Structure formats: C-alpha cells, structure tokens
Amino acid sequence: MPSSVIDRTVGFRLGSTAETKTAFTEPLGKGFYSYARRENPTVASCELALAAIEKAEKCLLTTSGMAAINVAFSIFNDPNDHRPWIFPDNAYSGTIDYAENILKKQRGTNVILANSKIKNSTTASLIEAIMKTAPALVFIEPVSNPLLDVIDVPEVINVAHQNGALVVVDNTFATPYLFRPLESGADIVVHSATKYLGGHNNILAGVIAVNDLDLYDRLICHRNVIGSVLSPDDAGRLENQLKTFSLRAAKQNETAMKIAKYLDTHPGVVEVRYPGLPSHAEHDLAHKLFGERGFGAIVTFDLAGSQKDSSQFVDSLSPYIPHIGSLGDVETTFLQVEACFLEGYSQSTIRLSIGIELADEIIKRLDQVL
Ligand code: PLP
Predict the structure, then answer these.
(1) Which residue of 14, 63, 85, 111 pairs with 20 in a disulfide if CB–CB is 3.0 to 4.6 A?
(2) How far is the CA of 205 from the centre of ligand 1 (A)?
(3) Sequence-ordered list of residues with C-beta below 8 angstroms from that of 30, at least 6 positions apart, any chain
(4) What pTM did the predictor assign?
(5) How many CA atoms lie less than 13 Å away from 75 in the CB half-sphere?
(6) pLDDT of 252-274, one tens digit each?
(7) Residue 107 alpha carbon to ligand 1 centre in Å
C-alpha cells in the first residue's frame, strides 16, 4: 500500500465563476475542494478509512478528542430545550470538565452526573437517571477511564431512545476492534484518535462517526465554522498508522490479558481491575459486548504498601516503562492515576497501557520493580 499523499493546499484553484460558486455553495462533505478548513482531500481520505473501521456511513476528523466532543455537543445547543443531559460520573475527566464548566456554567444546560456508586453499577445508575428525567442527550463510554467499569451500551441506548434521548458514545477505550456502538444504535460515536487509532503517541486527533446524514451535515458545518478540522499532515500520518490498527489492537488485547493474570497473583498488588478477569464485576457483560476479541489494553491495579512505596514504584519503573499522561501507544506506558486525575484516587492506583512488546519483556520489567 502506498503511503498516503498529503495535500497541504489551503486555497484550491477555483476555475470559472460557476465552478467557484459551486465550490463555496454546495453542502460540505461532497468533495468540492475550495478552502482547506471546509474540507480537504487528505482529511477526506483518512475519514473514509475510519468509516470502514468504525462501520459508519460518515466520519469527521477534528483537532483532538475534546474537539470531537465539542463539535458533537455543540450541534444540540438549543436554548429552548430544557431537558437534561446525562453523563456517568466516571466519564473521562476532560468530558466531565466540559459538562460542568461549558455546558452547565456557560450554556445553562441542566447537566446530571449519574452516580456510578449507586447499586455499584454505572448501567443501573444511568438507566435510573434516564427513566426519572427523560433527558435530551445521554453520553456514555463503554469502558470507563481509569477504573474500567463496563457499561451495557445496547441496554442504555435502548432505554435512552425509548425516553426520547440521543446517545453519544465515546469509544476511545473499547476501540472499534472490540465494539462498534453504531451497530447498537448509537447516534454519534466520538474518539480520541490520539490514543489507539493513532497508536504511536505522535498525533493529537479526534473522530466523530455517524450513520445519520442529517447529523453529518450539521456536524461538518459546525466543524467548519469553529475551525477544528485536523491538519492534512496529521490526517495523512493517522491514515498510515491505521493500516496497523487491528494488528496492534489484537496484540495489545492478548498481552493485556497475560499481564492482568500475572499482576493478579503478585503479592505486591492488592487489586487488579481488568474486565477480562472473572473477578471483575462486569466480566460477563464485557464478554457479551466484546465477544472473543479481548477485553482492552488497559490494566489498572492497586499496589500494596504505603504511599512512599507507591512513589518508589513510580521512580523505579519509569526508566523502563515511560510514565506518561496518555495511553494507547505501541510502547507500554503507565500512569500513577492520582498524580493526573487528582481528586478521589489513591496514590497506589496505577494504570498500565499495554503496548506491542512481548508479554515476557513487560513482565520482566514489572517483576524487577515490584
Ligand atoms: N475521551 C477519552 C476517553 C479520553 O481518555 C481522552 C483523553 O485522554 C479524551 C476523550 C480526549 O482526547 P484528546 O486528548 O485527544 O483531546
């Protein structure tokens, strides 16, 4: 397969008066290239590849995962609709920040954070909140970050639709390798392509995937007016890196299972959270959603010992396994969760993002330090 061609043109040659009018007045997304913020061929090519992977009618690339969430949320900004928007309280911290500070404080949206501790099930807490409040929009993540709670996505989508709500699913953690929310009826799927889709810790990008073409028209218009289209350079690089996506995902999922099992028996670890372990509260649900493909490439665990021991673990491991505030790379990395997510986490909680190295190599490194 040839490398993707990167077209860095900003203003495309316009031709005759009639052609110029067409280029600027035709609806966006039809391949009439006039100005690169509206649409451009390199971005369009990568969007086609993403649509094939996510099994979506249409995809849109944005400058980051948060930009994808911003564009998706902004098209539903109707000041006359006072119905609430529901989020699980264990959603990605950036999304919660957006919900509380942009939606609630700036736009006056009635934001409800469903309390995932009630009944110890994020699914149950979401369903209860939806049935009580008949929201306009429900936002979910199939697998939560960093504690890996699993949501019954088809069930939540059903209940949301029965109650008149649209559903936006952030599929960053599960990835289309494990699960495709559009097939379960999700209205909009978003991704931080910065993570597994890019997979090399070298691109900041977001994806919006839809089947509904009216939604697509609104989304692409909004992306244009707020100017958050991905650059051709990053789109070209992402398209190349997508060629190895399923290989990377298969290897990462397989190795993560081995690492989770290893950690589960280690005396230096008190608890391992991994949906692939039978001890995980939603193990059966994860199996139902993801089939035989795996359970994801994040393994979160709690270290035994004191806070000082946890700091020592971080210092000793980071020369071997990079300590970074991202995930999904081909290289195994880790994060001491409390240092990044700050509130409500213990210093002993470690989030491992499994790469494509041999499992034995990763275990050797962990063993040395544990
Ligand atoms: N969604 C999830 C689940 C994430 O983990 C992140 C970032 O960590 C984002 C969205 C935001 O993505 P980005 O950093 O590409 O804006």
Answers:
(1) 14
(2) 9
(3) none
(4) 0.96
(5) 22
(6) 999 999 999 999 999 999 999 99
(7) 22
